[in-house]
Amino acid sequence: KNNDLKTEIVVLGGGPGGYTAAFRAADLGKQVVLIERYPVIGGVCLNVGCIPSKALLHIAQVIHEAEEFGNNGITFGKPKIDLDKVRSWKAGVTKTLNDGLAGLAKQRKVTVVYGLGKFTSANTISVAANDGSTTSVQFDQAIIAVGSHPTKIPTFPYGDPRLMDSTDALELKQIPKKLLIVGGGIIGLEMATVYHALGSEISVVELMDQIIPGCDKDLIRPLHNRIKKQYKNIWLETKVSSIQAQAKGLKVSFDRADSIPASGIHTIPGDKGKDAPESEVFDSVLVAVGRQPNGLTIGADLAGVNVDERGFITVDKQQRTNIKNIFAIGDVVGNPMLAHKATHEGKVAAEVAAGHKAAFDALTIPSVAYTDPEIAWMGLTEIQAKQQGIEYDKAAFPWAASGRSLSIGRKEGITKLICEKGTGRVLGAGIVGTNAGELIAEAVLALEMGADAEDVGLTIHPHPTLSETLGFAAEMIIGTITDIY
Ligand code: FAD
Fold first, then answer.
1. Which mean pLDDT values do the consecutive 10-residue runs of the chain (485 residues) have?
2. According to the model, what pLDDT value does residue 276 have?
3. 424 C-beta closer than 6 A to ligand 1
């Protein structure tokens, strides 16, 4: 049977970047084929990333809130965890969205081809389906959206089910008694939050001198202080030198990391001296040390598309690769590896491919750690301002002075605003606290609109809300709030 297809635009990869590009191109009147190797659309984000992790994090939040409110007069019993039901609830959330995407593809007459796609030239992709059949797709233009996969450390005993990556961890096969998280970045700490709430004893090991490297330390501190009490260990500047599979667990050996910070100063107190042991046995280890782009696996050379040795594909502001009719978007084009970057780039690529004028010109891509408390930041960080010698005014409004924060039983948050010295123009913001991920959106809009501290400070925010804290931080900069009580 001849399955061969001919199309105006082919999109390789059905993650948030790919399906967004496919839908946009179809909406602009283009004939579109979308190729996805798994039998569902949605990519890492929907199937093994953003969405299932947030579903499980919500469970963690419910458990913690119920526990902590015991101090304030409402006591619940110890939670009973039915893992099968938790898993099927998570799967239900994902399936609803998978089905929604399949419907959106159908409505737009996007042809979805399931199978592993590889370029065979700058105008053809060959797709190998699970049943052994192949389809050749001939195209005028292509959008590469093949995403990324978890970084593996070659010497670790992969294949042992007790050694997990984020995909395994989200499956929630069991709740290990003693869990080590290798990597104190966003993904590692989100999974730590989930497993801690479900009853695991958590240890975190991080190479750098702080958790969530790259984020300003003042924003990290409230999270660090809270999890320090909840978790068994947080080992900074420490690396895992080996993991050996043993009958009763995974034996992990630790080393001091060579990379002591240039300053030699540990600005987060309390962990210096609390060094990791030489080795310790864990029931399970989750490795969350970053992600690698999938650019080296798609026959890009046969299309003439340049891929660097790590697997990233370089693109211009219109998402075009070095080959004129081939675009690339999402995790495979570089950091930050975030779904909202991928979707935004997907729209740009589809519009350019459809002959419209478009370019990626976002001023900032916000980052959010959905830990408890959440941390969100956008625009310039203080670390960057200092590195780049930018003069700035800063205000940090403490949530201990927010009525709303106190009335939800939490007060450790901070809302920080960074403005250009002299003009007051918003350059950056960072928020740590409940719902920080929702709250950062206002700051992103302020930056995109070129707002200054007065614009934000004189905007009436509803009372009592956490959103007021951004207004208050701006008022601290313009001088209309001087006293915090
Ligand atoms: P992907 O989502 O990786 O999609 C690529 C698709 O291409 C996949 O479906 C893959 O199967 C397919 N594919 C690859 N190669 C081929 C081929 N040769 N042929 C056919 N198909 C192929 N980001 C956020 O913004 N917010 C979050 O809260 C968040 N949480 C995360 C939590 C976890 C645990 C993880 C792992 C990631 C998280 N991310 C989050 C990151 C986010 O998932 C990615 O940035 C996003 O999925 C990237 O989208 P993409 O379209 O570039 O690629």
1. 87 98 98 97 97 97 92 91 96 97 98 98 97 97 98 95 98 97 98 98 95 96 97 94 97 80 43 72 98 98 98 98 98 98 98 98 98 98 95 97 94 97 97 98 98 98 98 97 79
2. 87
3. no
CB of 17 sitting under 6 A from ligand 1? yes
**Cα dist from 187 to 181, 278, 280, 324, 337, whole Å:** 10, 25, 23, 35, 11
The one-letter code for the residue type at 392 is Y
**Residue 12 β-bridge partners:** 35, 144
Residue 337, exposed/middle/buried by CB under 10 A (0-12, 13-18, 19+)? buried
Distance CA(26)–CA(301), nearest Å, equals 28
What is the C-alpha to C-alpha distance for residues 245 and 333, in angstroms, rounded to an integer?
Answer: 36
DSSP-derived letter for residue 239 is E
pLDDT value, residue 256: 83
Answer yes or no: is 188 a known binding residue. Answer: yes
List all residues 6 or more positions away from 429 whose beta carbon is below 8 Å from its beta carbon: 377, 378, 379, 415, 416, 417, 418, 440, 443, 446, 447, 470, 473
**Tokens found for residue 72:** 């304030």
- The angle at the Cα of 265, spanning 264 to 268, to the nearest 5 degrees, equals 140
Mutate to test the pocket of ligand 1, among 40, 44, 344, 438 (most ligand atoms within 8 A of CB): 44
What is the interface pTM, i.e. ipTM, of the complex?
A: 0.99
In the reported structure, the alpha carbon of residue 331 is separated from the centroid of ligand 1 by a whole-number distance in angstroms of 7
Ligand 1 centroid, distance to 377 Cα (angstroms): 21
Q: Which residue has the tokens 């029931």?
A: 283
For the Cβ of 427 lying below 6 angstroms from any atom of ligand 1, the answer is no
Listed residue (351, 354, 432) closest to 399, CA to CA: 432
Tokens of 319: 């998402």
